[in-house]
Amino acid sequence: MHISEGVLNPPVLLLGGIFTALGTAVGLKYLTPEAIPRAALLTAAAFVASLVHIPLGPSSVHLVLNGLLGLILRWGAFPSFLVCLFLQAILFQFGGLTTLGVNTFNMAFPAVVMAYLARPLLNKGTRGALVAGFLVGSLAVFGAGLLVALELSFTGENFRTAARLILAAHLPVAALEGVICAFICSYLKRIRPEILR
Amino acid sequence: MAQKRDPRIDIIFTFLFALIVATSSRWSVIFLGLLTGLGLAFASRLSLKKTVKQFLLADLFLLMVVITLPFTTPGQGIARLGPLVLTREGLLFALFIFLKANSILLVTYALLGPKNIFEIAHALHHLKVPSKLVQLLFFTFRYLSLLEKEFQKLLEAAKLRGFSPKTALSSYRVWSYLLAALFIRSYDRASRVYEAMLLRGYRGYFPVWHHFAWQPRDTFWSILGGIYLIFMASLAYL
């Protein structure tokens, strides 16, 4: 879930901006000319995936797939989500310009961390990819929700209830992401293993 | 193109405006910001109905924050809802956050919304945003609608073969395979795009052919925008 404009206090906004600038700098360093179109098209694919509404019980949710992008792009997830969120802010008014730093960090940081932690599992056959996909998919979304909740709590005592509600809202999405990401990873591992390399 | 204001002015103005309003804690700044947003939205002839619908209903995050704040902010209680106490201070604070968020959204929507993303990417390039980042933005937007169509085609094909989306593991498996197919197609298309670019002499950057020509009108708008922002900043921080 994207943090909107005008809610967080200046120190949190500033820190988010600094961390995202650092992460993006690292990500851009690894982007060779050949990797730029690849990162861009995968970003576009994730953007398209985030528009899809998947039924979940009586309601439906939309996917984030930050874990999957982290697995494929690693540090490239930072510039990728920066671009994705910038487009969403301009095209749909989701999130916003001043929260671009915080929101990018919330999405990309857990994704990069989980991608590095799960890498050894990913190389252990199709079953390993299934487990790695579940862990990365679910924990990257849960991590994003946790960061949103923490940032809200830092902003003020009276934001704690909203923080808890928002973290709770992330739980079903995290479970669904885990399942979807597990299937995607095992499929990619079987059909096109070089994408996950 | 010749009749338009330099888009760099709009981008810088929007960003500074958002920064000032987002970090301010005064009602006067929010009111002036909201008036500015409404004025700009009116000037760029945005549909009011569409705007209101897009803003009020879209943002679940803002909604959760605004609904809880009246009950969690300490102050003078004015109503009781079971164990919850609605405070006057909380209600005002929630309204403050809500108007603050929407004044920034209005200005962003009015100034950047009608612009083409390629125009914005071009302006960002001239604002010295790292070339790789601008290329990433350019390519992502370039292939967005194409990949969307491709995914709709995949989904339609699956539905014709009897797939019906529901809450079940078997259904999620199909969703996953459709998404995986989308990712594989994007990956393969990227290789073809890169090869085609190499054949056209790509060397890791985009040579820019079109440059902005600064017009007297642009000087006028920068001075006007600058004075407004200085006024807002002094209202916010002094």
Kindly describe this structure.
The complex is a heterodimer of chains A (197) and B (238). In chain A, 75% of the residues lie in helices and 4% in strands. Chain A has 7 helices and 2 strands, in the order H-H-E-E-H-H-H-H-H. In chain A, helix 1 (10-30) crosses helix 4 (77-92), helix 3 crosses helix 5 (100-122) and helix 4 (77-92) packs across helix 5 (100-122). Chain A is mainly α. The model of chain A has no long low-confidence stretch (mean pLDDT 91). Chain A has a two-stranded antiparallel ribbon. Chain A has one domain (10-196): Arp2/3 complex 21 kDa subunit ARPC3 (Orthogonal Bundle). Chain A has helices at residues 10-30, 35-50, 66-73, 77-92, 100-122, 125-155, 160-191; strands at residues 53-56, 59-62. Chain B is flat, with a radius of gyration of 24 Å. In chain B, helix 2 packs parallel to helix 5, helix 6 (117-126) packs antiparallel against helix 7 (131-160) and helix 7 packs across helix 8. In chain B, strands 1-2 form a two-stranded antiparallel ribbon. Chain B is mostly helical. Chain B has 2 domains: 7-115 and 213-237, no CATH class; 131-199, no CATH class. Chain B contains 9 helices and 2 strands, in the order ααααββααααα. Chain B has helices at 7-23, 27-43, 48-58, 60-72, 88-111, 117-126, 131-160, 169-199, 216-237, and strands at residues 77-81, 84-87. Chains A and B meet through helix 1, helix 2, strand 1, helix 4 and helix 7 of A and helix 1, helix 3, helix 4, helix 5 and helix 7 of B.
